[in-house]
């Protein structure tokens, strides 16, 4: 049976941070499902930098259907979890169904890949305390408040947790995550 991987996201997630791991993990042979607050067509965004702006800008991105609602997810059916960034984590961290899912993955020490603002979700279930992580650099204080040691690096591996700063770090992030996956949940 092919190992299944869950991506948890919602509207305003960064397009590349959802679709790159989705395609890369499928290419590797994993079955990948996307879960969101409800089954619907999700609207992703594109974050980029423009001259004259102090921070990134946001533009409409791709749309993509959610396979499952958070309430339909059985975490025991999945070998690993991917937590993309964008603005979605800001509101998703308040979803009690999603917090149950996240907690289950950390309680069972399953591989988790998080990127950009995704660590706001794992911080919401107190899963970062005592760990080394990276995230979008503006979240350094949030990561420290969550009890993590922040490292400004392309990818940081702490046990089964693999984190990255943002979409420019995809190659390093997925390379490290696949190393963890091959050890903990190989494709069969």
UniProtKB/TrEMBL annotation:
Domain DJ-1/PfpI: 4-178
Family annotation (CDD domains): GATase1_PfpI_1
PROSITE patterns assigned: PEPTIDASE_C56_PFPI (PS51276)
Species, as recorded: Streptomyces mangrovisoli
Protein name: Peptidase
Source superkingdom: Bacteria
Listed SUPFAM superfamilies: Class I glutamine amidotransferase-like
Membership in a protein family: Belongs to the peptidase C56 family.
Pfam families with a match to the protein in the record: DJ-1_PfpI
